[in-house]
Structure formats: structure tokens, C-alpha cells
Amino acid sequence: MKRSCLLILFLTVLFIPKAQSGISSSKDSLQTLIKSFKYNQALEYIDHLLVMDSSCKDLYAAKGFALRELYDYEHAVKAYLQALMLDSTNSSLIIEVANTYKLSEDYPHSLAYFSKALEKDTANLFLQLECANCKLLNNQFDDAINDFMRLYIKDSTNSYVIKCLAFSFSKLLQTEVAIFFYQKAIEINPTDVSSVLGLTNLFTKTKAYKEGIKRTEQYRAIDPSNENVNSMNAFLYLSDKQYDLAIERYLKCIEAGDSSEFILKNIGIAYYSKEEYDMAKGFFEKAYGIDPTNASTVHFLGVSCYRSFYKELGILYLEKAMELYQPSLDKLAMVYRNYAEACQGWDKCPSEKKIDATLRAYEFNPSDSILALSLGSEYEHAKNYAKALEYYKVYLKVMPKEEEENLPAKYSRRLYFENKIKKLTVLSEEKK
After folding, report:
1. Among 106, 128, 110, residue whose Cα is nearest residue 119
2. Where are the alpha helices (DSSP H) in 23-174?
3. Cα torsion at 356, 357, 360, 365 (round to 10°)?
4. In terms of residue numbers, what domain contains 408?
């Protein structure tokens, strides 16, 4: 069969016409076409050869390779399987099928063929590793850990295996074990950026920010140009409330060419946390320009506006944030609270809008004494004494304990509002 395939290839190269083959020169070989990355021409050539002899497995294997290089994994698998049908014991073909399934992200089928190849060569470490990888990629973390642990026992210095163990344990929420293996992987290979990021991500989740800062600083001493590590480093400073250092590091990220929404928003958060709302507004606006649908960004922008000099603009952004947060009730509670605060803080805001905003905020925050007090004040200002009485009474019921300390009567807030309630009760009766 091999001689037949070689003879057909030789004769076709010599005699097939250019117009029929579509190949630039009748003397071009299939190998030359593939080496020259002319995969479409190679496929045309292979199909013609298969018409002459459909029993040549090497042609199907070549077709599978060309299709795979063109990212046509579905047809590449079919071609490799046709080759495998002609030589079912060929380990190389079995591995090619497994690799192609893996590239197409069909991990169960990839695992099946890697396992089939492993059955023929049980001591093959490469195949053992690929089986473990497929289980990891298919989210079979328990099974992956078992496979990687067997490999780790054979070689405790393989940083890739150790890193995969760390990742798998982290996915199973076994954080301490994951941290142990990430640290071990970094000890073996300090330049492994994925292990550094995996470890510092766990430090972020466990709020061990200083440990994360230490690790990212160690990596930055090796490679100060890695964007992901620099971004994580800045984020850790932000999380640790070292806002000035966070801003400094994020600005360096921008200088290095990373002006992503994430970077811009976090600079805004750093300035916001420092109560420098005007500076925060500028960065939130830039982040908003990249993604105007990010509810959190719009929320921060709205609050930054009304807490600086842009009261009306802040209200508009908060109204947009309310639309974007639907139907996330936990987020809406805070944005309505901020919206009410913004309306109350804008001198030109109509009284009806202030009341409406505060009522909506109060619906989401019924235990908020400040909102009850604000409603009482707004209704009193609007001379709706009955409603003012209702909310002042609520305020007295939920008044924070720190406001009920033993003070001289003339300084007592409780006494002040009790007297106000008496006065408003009279006014309310007179209005009837």
C-alpha cells in the first residue's frame, strides 16, 4: 500500500495539469505545499490523489493536519478517523485524533483517545499528563488531582504538574492546599507568571493583601513589564487601602499602554476612597466611555458627581445606574440611597422629586433612620404635616442608640423631635 501511495504521488506531481489541480506548479510536492503553509492548495491536491486511491492512510492523515491548521477541527477529526480506520493500531494517529479533539475543546473525546493511546503504552508520561490535562479542562477536578498527584509522586520538581494541582485544589475551594502548591511551583520556577497570578488571586480572596503585595513585588523585581502582574500589584495596594501607592502603580500601567476599563475604574475607586471626588469623576468618566453598560461604574460616577460640583449630572447618572442594576435588589438598595442623597443635596431639585427619590430609597432601606428623618423633613417643608408626623415617629422608633445618650435636655435630639411632633400634631389638626 505504501508503494502504491508513493507511486501515485510521484505520477501526479509529474503529469496533473495546472488548471485541473489548482497548484502553482505541477512539480510542487504535497510536502512543499504544507511546509509553505499552502493548506487550501494541499487539500485540493490531496482530494485529487484520494480519487485515485482512497486506501492511503497517509493522505487522510495529511488532510487532517491541513484542516487542523485551518482551524477546521470537525473535518480534521473526520480525516484522522478515516486514516485510523485503515490502521487502527497506529498510536500516532490515535494521538493526533486526541490532540485535534482537544483543540476543538471536546475534552471528553480527547480524553477517550489519549486513554486509548495510554493503554498501548502505560508508562508514557506524556500521555499520562495529557489525560490529566483533559480531566482538568473538563472540570473533573477530583479525577485530575488523582492523576496529577501520581505524576507529582514520580517527579516532585515538575512545576507544571504542581501548578495544575494548585489550580485544581483552588477550584475545589481547598484554598490552603492550593496556596501550598502554588508557593511550591513558584519556588521551583519564580518566573512562572500564571502561578504568581493564581497565588495572588487566592491571597486577594482570603484578604491576605500584604502577602499578595509581597509576591507581586518579588515578581516585578524579575520582570517589571508584565501587565497582568502590575495590574494585580496595583489592585492589591487598592484592596489594602494603600490608595496613593495604588494610584501610582495604576498610572504606571497606563504609561505602559494599559488603559483598560478595569484600570481606569480602579484609579477612580482609589480617588473616591480618598474622598477626592472630582479626580475620581474624571477616571470614572473614562471608564464609562469604554463601557457605558457597567452599572457599578455608572453608580460610582453618579456619586462622585454629586459629591463634587456636578449635582444634577450625578442625579442623571444615578438614574441610569438604577436602570442598569435591575433587577439586582441588593445593588438597588444602595443606588436608591445615593440617589435620594443626591436629590436632597441639589438646591434646584424640585421638592416632589426629592420626596419621590427618598420614598423609593426608603422602600429598599426600611431600617434607615436617616431616610425616615429626611422624609419627615421634606414633608414638613411641603406642609404635609400628617406625612411628616408619620416619618418623624418612625425616626424616633429606629433612632440609633448613639443618639440616645444621656445628655442635658436642651441637647437631646429625642426631646427635640418629641416637641416637633407635638407641634406638627397641632398644625395637622388645624389643617383638617
Report:
1. 128
2. 30-35, 39-52, 57-69, 73-86, 91-103, 107-120, 125-137, 141-154, 159-171
3. -130
4. 367-432
* Interatomic CA distance for residues 2 and 288, integer angstroms: 64
56 is a domain residue: yes
Please name which of 345, 335, 347 lies closest in space to residue 300, comparing C-alpha atoms: 335
Q: What is the rounded CA–CA span in Å between residue 120 and residue 124?
A: 9
Answer with the one of 61, 88, 115 that is the final residue of a domain.
88
CATH number for 74? 1.25.40.10
- Given this model, what pLDDT does residue 400 score? 66
Number of structural domains found in the chain: 2
CA–chain centroid gap for 251, Å, is: 21
d(CA 202, CA 170): 8
Type and span of the H or E element at 304: helix 295-306
What local confidence, expressed as pLDDT, does residue 20 receive?
42
In a domain, 390, yes or no: yes
With 0-12 / 13-18 / 19 or more C-beta atoms within 10 angstroms meaning exposed / middle / buried, residue 414 is middle
Query: 28 lies in a domain?
Result: yes
Structural domain includes residue 222 = no
Give the three-state DSSP class for 327. coil
pLDDT digits (tens, 9 = 90+) for 29-82: 788 888 889 999 999 999 988 888 888 899 999 999 999 999 999 999 999 999
